[in-house]
Amino acid sequence: MSGRRIMTGDDIRRAVVRVSHEIVEKHAGTDGLALVGIQRRGVPLARRIADAIRENEGAEVPVGALDITFYRDDLSLVAQQPVVKGTAIPFDINGRTVVLVDDVLYTGRTIRAAMDALIDYGRPQAIRLAVLVDRGHRELPIRADHVGKNVPTSREEVVHVMLDVIDGDDAVVIDRLPGAGGGSVQ
Q1: Which residues make Cβ contacts (< 8 Å) with residue 167, sequence separation at least 6?
Q2: Distance in angstroms (rounded) separating the CA atoms of residues 16 and 163
Q3: Domain with residues 4-167, CATH architecture
Q4: Which of 118, 132, 147 is nearest to 41 (CA)?
Q5: How much is the pTM?
Q6: Torsions phi, psi for 55 (to 5 deg)
Q7: In terms of DSSP bridges, do strands 126-134 and 146-150 run parallel, antiparallel, or are they unpaired?
Q8: Fewer CB near the last or first residue (10 Å), C or N of the chain?
């Protein structure tokens, strides 16, 4: 990755610990709390937050995985053959406070799709949002409740979150988009 590194592994670890504290504080404990990571990088981030909560609070918070592929409003623009990664929510979300976890918040469309998908599994008492990076440029009225790092970007840039379990390294990198209209945007 040739871009500008804006978060190291230690920065990510500190952000995850801080976000875990914020989540517990806002919820006033862990009872009735659940984390649901948005496939792909939101899932390991949700697990890291749950691990930090377990370490600091001594409480197990259930973690699920949500695939929003077929809920996206830009599915035809993403791929002709979308890759479905699977949803696994092994707990009842009814009446719980569910914290959706994702790597990058950009336009808000992914989060809108995630809320639509989540509601198909039940009726949570509340849905909150935790993201590692908020890069701005919202197209929908969506904001994160918990943010690891706010990063002002231009639309000509792309934010890459790399996590050890997927990419072999923990880092956040900003790159310029390759040419007009090329590359994937987070």
Answers
A1: none
A2: 12
A3: 3-Layer(aba) Sandwich (3.40)
A4: 132
A5: 0.91
A6: -65, -40
A7: parallel
A8: N
